[in-house]
Structures are given as C-alpha cells and as structure tokens.
Here is the input.
Amino acid sequence: MAKRSTPELNAGSMADIAFLLLSFFLLTTTMEQNIGIPRRLPPLLNEQEKTKEEINRRNILQVFVNSKDRLSVNHALMEVIQLKDAVKDFISNPNDEDTKPIKEDKHIEGLGMMKVSKGVVSLQTDRGTSYSMYMAVQNEIMKAYGELRDEFSVSKYGSAYNKLTEDQQEAVRGVYPLNISEAEPRETKKK
Here is the structure.
C-alpha cells in the first residue's frame, strides 16, 4: 500500500508576520511617562549679586525630615498635619512680621502692582527618610500653595484657581510662585 502524504504547512512566513505585528504594536503604542515633581531652581548669581542678595535668613523656611521620619521646621519639631498651615502663614506673612519673608512690589500682568513674598521653602531629608514621609511632606507643602492660590483666586476673580483661564492662573502663580528648594539628602551620623 502506498504511503499517505500529509500536507505540510510552511511556518517560515508565520514568524515573519508575527515579527511584523510585534514591531507594529511596539512602534504605535504610547507609554505613560512619569513627569516627576516640578521644581524651579534659583538663577545663578554673579559675585556682586551674591553679596547683595546674601540670602536673608528670614526668607527661608527650613523643613527637615530626619531618618526616623521626624519633621522639624526652622529647628522646631512639628507634626506633618501642621506643616501646611505653617507654610501658608510663612509665605503669605499676613501681618508683615520681621521674622517672616520680605514682600516686594512686583508688576503682575493682569493684576498690576502686587506685594509678592520672597519666601522660599527649603526642604531637606536624610538618606534614611522613608518615601511615604517624604511624599507626605511634599503633599502638605503643595497643599499650602494650592490653598493660597485658591484663596487669592476667589478674592480677586470670584472663582477657584482650577476654574480660572490660563492667563488668570498665570497671574495668580505670579503672586504665589512655587519657591521650593530641595537640598541633597544628608547622612546623619550614627551613634
């Protein structure tokens, strides 16, 4: 009896098709990008400006988180839930106190001359600080700026910051610029 032949399928072209499909999906798929936490670095100063500008200590709110996740603000221990109000009070300086930031007159497009705080929130952590504590501190600082901007927006425009036009939001950001300085994490000495 004659041997029965079974038809063979050429699988060589299947690998080519699979490779083309894989290439197509890799090239057309968009990946979500993490944009990080936006921070504005201070401009470089020349020597003359450094001596003139010699950062006035009253313009800096020092926020430090140690390796045991303890928070101190200007060398005083504080709980994280108190940080937002401390930052708001420092940046806004409602009573023009001598221990809080200087306010300078600045022309803001759409608002005219406004008193703008020269305050900077300086955040420093320890290498042993937990990520959750770092993010909690970051969130409280950002909430403070968000509330300051919302309160100003409501008083000037009668609407919350996120409901303003782009030009109005830019004007509000001019009055309350996000001035946060993050120092390199430091290593605490182990005893």
Observations:
- The chain has five helices and seven strands.
